[in-house]
Amino acid sequence: MDLLYSEEHKAFRQEVRDFLAANLPDDMRERLRAGGFATKDDNALWQRRLNQRGWGAPAWPKAFGGAGWDADRQRIFADECAAAPAPTPHPFNITMLGPVLIHFGSDVQREYFLPKLLNADIQVCQGFSEPGSGSDLASLKTTAVREGNEYIVNGQKIWTSQAHYADWAFCLVRTDVDAVKKQAGISFLLIDMKSPGITVRPIISIDGRHSLNEVFFENVRVPADNLVGEENKGWSYAKFLLGHERAHIAGIGRNKERVACARALLAKMEDEGYPEATLAAYRGRIAMIEADLHALEVTQLRVHGGHADAKLSPMLKVRGSEIFQAVTDLLCRMTGTGSLPADGADVTLTRSYLYSRAVSIFGGTTEVQKNILSASLLDLS
């Protein structure tokens, strides 16, 4: 695929690889390769190393401390981080909240939050989904009632990743319960997670990990200065944020790294003398996944390079999720009983497989993405 990039971009790819080789801790690399998640400390350490290099926020303008890279450099960097594997720049800090503050926040908010987000001096979480308000996010019911210079927040959020150790949350709250159009009564609020009245309860997911949470707000007082942009305009900011969340959503680098693991495992099985019929079946499956991945990468370059309708982006999310699930399933099948937990091991291929089932849900479910495609491309709304 390097044939699709300029010599300058190829040189940049090598620069990124050299940086990763010199700066990514071996223990972090191995945990991520085995299917583990980056911890809070991992995120902080890696974000600070990236920030020190000037790479802490690839898409942010240089005026706000970002790298100011073009789309190709951002894509190369994301792919190489995934292939290493290394954590990406902190997704909630850098990909989601930062761009919203840059475009819609006040000068005071930008001055206070942006340097801290860049250096992981604070880590934030996303308070969007609620019980009954996931795919239909605009139906959310958490309220924020203005009283003088404060908002009083009451309600519940769910599936909140990292809420158990986040310092702040950016939340969608309903500030006009009488709005004729439900999207029109929503605001975007920054909430200190240490505020009285906040309760965080863990949700243990099917892979046995604790990354998700329920968050309850009971008469939580939030300074009105923490309102981002205008009251009742939060839906517009949320759509802007979700566009950034879905950047590089095809997960090309992540899928390439998993395919590389499958190829390495196949070579090991060949050395160990597995029957040729078994090897041939796995070899063929890897080749089919690689072909799908190659097609997806070309499609991503066409869509994000401006040569095709950007409304196709939901397709990238759908196919990227399907390919990730397929290669994770293949790795488990190739490993057999070796993919199961043993001796109390926390990181296993089985855990990775179970986690992969959620990839077609977060960032917009496959069903929602197909609805978007049908409405935008086929006019079936």
From TrEMBL:
Domain Acyl-CoA dehydrogenase/oxidase N-terminal per the UniProt entry, residue ranges: 6-119
Domain Acyl-CoA dehydrogenase/oxidase C-terminal positions: 232-377
Gene Ontology MF terms: flavin adenine dinucleotide binding; oxidoreductase activity, acting on the CH-CH group of donors
UniProt cofactor(s): FAD
UniProt superkingdom: Bacteria
Gene3D superfamilies, alphabetized: Acyl-CoA dehydrogenase/oxidase, N-terminal domain, Butyryl-CoA Dehydrogenase, subunit A, domain 2, Butyryl-CoA Dehydrogenase, subunit A, domain 3
Pfam families according to UniProt: Acyl-CoA_dh_1, Acyl-CoA_dh_M, Acyl-CoA_dh_N
InterPro entries named among the record's database cross-references: Acyl-CoA_Oxase/DH_mid-dom, Acyl-CoA_Oxase/DH_mid-dom_sf, AcylCo_DH-like_C, AcylCo_DH/oxidase_C, AcylCoA_DH/ox_N, AcylCoA_DH/ox_N_sf, AcylCoA_DH/oxidase_NM_dom_sf, Mycobact_Acyl-CoA_DH
Protein EC: 1.3.99.3
UniProt family annotation: Belongs to the acyl-CoA dehydrogenase family.
Annotated protein name in UniProt: Acyl-CoA dehydrogenase
